[in-house]
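Structure first, sequence second, as always.
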């Protein structure tokens, strides 16, 4: 009766699971976004060499208009804030203009597209802000940079430096990501995202050009991109957890306790046996519902512990179903570190608080 009384008293203080709480992504997810891309002034170097004539070159930079960007990603969350993903992205910037440094007054034109893929590693700051999940990330990859109809025409001249047509050159790339996710309570697993990205390209890219009939090599010597996007992230396999019912005294309740190793949500051989015992009990007893309540100790942040207790509850509920318990009879709840069996202070590892309670009502 002491255990049952302790459980009842702690349940009176438990907070219901908020569907809009930001939780760590655990498993496969899909993401996407659209927005705008801005290129810092892009430097070009044009050089020409004829037989017996000394090579000449001019170096300058141009500005481009802000253009559209789109990205699609597929990734995996490890349940502890870390995520890894692959992405495909497209950027387009039109209207090269305002050339500087080429040695003569000039006008410019053309546009640029970038198509490529990146591999990103990200970290979600779970539990820092209610209903918001800030995250940061780093990525490396490869971009195909397509310069189209690039030209620089000196003022008052009919002949200028021209790169006609469309020419693509590959380049390795790196990027940094700063973002926020806003979970949608009505659709578990779905979040709206807002991001800022910086991407830089490595090395030079050479394109064929001409001044009149003279062949010219045009090199892009740097390319730094700033992007702002809005989009979505959808984590697969996330089912809604109902709010915790108002606790009432239930003298006929039967409880099974399933314990977990520190920072783990997998069942051991012993805990699998306890779940089987609970499933067998369900076949010889009369009950109105089965509560599966996930809990964690205080050794992590409140947000992380909330997600960990949820994963533990899902694992036990799935095992009960495999052992023959009707899924419709199970009601899952996640209490994080708010329902301690053994009261402790913060940042304390306590084996008896790392548990799932299977309660027959």
């Amino acid at each position: 009766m002491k255990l049952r009384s302790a459980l009842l008293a702690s349940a009176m203080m438990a907070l219901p699971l908020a569907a809009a709480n930001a939780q760590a992504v655990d498993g496969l997810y899909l993401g996407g976004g659209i927005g705008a891309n801005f290129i810092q002034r892009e430097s070009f170097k044009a050089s020409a060499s004829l037989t017996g004539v000394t090579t000449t070159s001019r170096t300058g930079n141009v500005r481009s208009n802000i253009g559209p960007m789109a990205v699609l990603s597929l990734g995996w969350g490890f349940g502890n804030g870390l995520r890894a993903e692959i992405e495909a992205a497209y950027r387009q910037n039109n209207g090269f203009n305002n050339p500087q440094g080429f040695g003569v007054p000039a006008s410019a034109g053309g546009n640029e597209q970038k198509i490529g893929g990146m591999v990103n590693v990200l970290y979600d700051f779970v539990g820092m802000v209610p209903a918001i999940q800030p995250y940061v990330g780093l990525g490396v990859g490869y971009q195909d940079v397509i310069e189209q109809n690039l030209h620089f025409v000196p003022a008052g001249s009919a002949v200028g430096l021209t790169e006609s047509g469309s020419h693509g050159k590959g380049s390795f790339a790196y990027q940094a990501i700063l973002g926020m996710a806003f979970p949608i309570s009505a659709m578990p697993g779905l979040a709206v995202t807002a991001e800022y990205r910086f991407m830089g390209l490595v090395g030079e890219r050479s394109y064929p050009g001409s001044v009149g009939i003279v062949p010219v090599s045009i090199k892009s010597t740097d390319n730094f991109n700033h992007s702002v996007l809005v989009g979505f992230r959808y984590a697969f396999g996330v089912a809604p957890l109902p709010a915790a019912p108002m606790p009432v005294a239930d003298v006929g309740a039967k409880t099974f306790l399933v314990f977990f190793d520190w920072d783990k949500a997998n069942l051991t051989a012993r805990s699998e046996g306890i779940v089987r015992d609970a499933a067998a009990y369900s076949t010889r007893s009369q009950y109105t519902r089965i509560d599966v309540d996930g809990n964690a100790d205080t050794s992590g942040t409140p947000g992380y512990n909330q997600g960990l207790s949820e994963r533990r509850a899902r694992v036990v509920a799935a095992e009960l179903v495999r052992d023959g318990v009707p899924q419709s009879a199970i009601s899952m709840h996640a209490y994080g570190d708010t329902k301690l069996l053994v009261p402790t202070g913060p940042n304390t590892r306590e084996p008896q608080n790392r548990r799932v309670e299977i309660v027959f009502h």
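Margin note: The first helix runs from residue 2 to 12.
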